[in-house]
Amino acid sequence: xxxxxxxxxxxxxxxxxxxxxxxxxxxxxxxxxxxxxxxxxxxxxxxxxxxxxxxxxxxxxxxxxxxxxxxxxxxxxxxxxxxxxxxxxxxxxxxxxxxxxxxxxxxxxxxxxxxxxxxxxxxxxxxxxxxxxxxxxxxxxxxxxxxxxxxxxxxxxxxxxxxxxxxxxxxxxxxxxxxxxxxxxxxxxxxxxxxxxxxxxxxxxxxxxxxx
Length: 212
Ligand code: SAH
Ligand code: MG
Fold this sequence. Notes:
Elements: H1 4-13, H2 19-31, H3 38-51, E1 55-59, H4 65-72, E2 77-82, H5 85-97, E3 104-108, H6 111-114, E4 124-129, H7 136-144, E5 147-156, H8 175-190, E6 194-199, E7 205-210
Helix pairs in contact: 3-4
The structure holds S-adenosyl-L-homocysteine (SAH) and magnesium ion.
Residues 34, 36, 130, 156-157, 203 line the site of magnesium ion.
């Protein structure tokens, strides 16, 4: 979606990151795991540094790459949910090995089932949505119940390989997901309780701030 030359140029001028980040990027590339691009990581770093969140919720852990960005750039307690037990274990092992596991809770399960158990128990000031693309609207409705005024929700893949804005034509199989993401973006746009900005970083990021 974004010109490769631009990405290469940005890569050449942004800060360097430690080997563990590069190692995870390589694993994700080899195993075809859709982690955020480094540019998105630096953007999360910026948001974290400004917001100084105390409690972060991540939906979609995968191997813990975005989780590591959150961990290294905050002092927050992080709750992260993953449906795939192997990936959850991989991420958990990583943080244990790095000695960075004392303020992370790994949850195994479908976010749609895990999130309702948080209602009345937890409140987050930063939420990252990056799991099943067709479920974004449902996640958001549940997040409404576990956030207060001033909370920020960051949603990944809101342009979905350029298919949501119509730059690329979706296959028959992907069309329903593309339509759902488009509906989600429009819901954010029309939501009086939140104000949302959209960024052309990676696969598209939406940043929403809760007004009331
Ligand atoms: N946030 C990660 C990448 C997540 S990829 C990063 O940027 O580093 C999306 C992940 O969401 C996958 O690992 C997938 O197994 C998980 N997932 C898909 N559907 C889910 C669901 N219903 N509940 C929880 N996790 C889900
Ligand atoms: Mg993603």
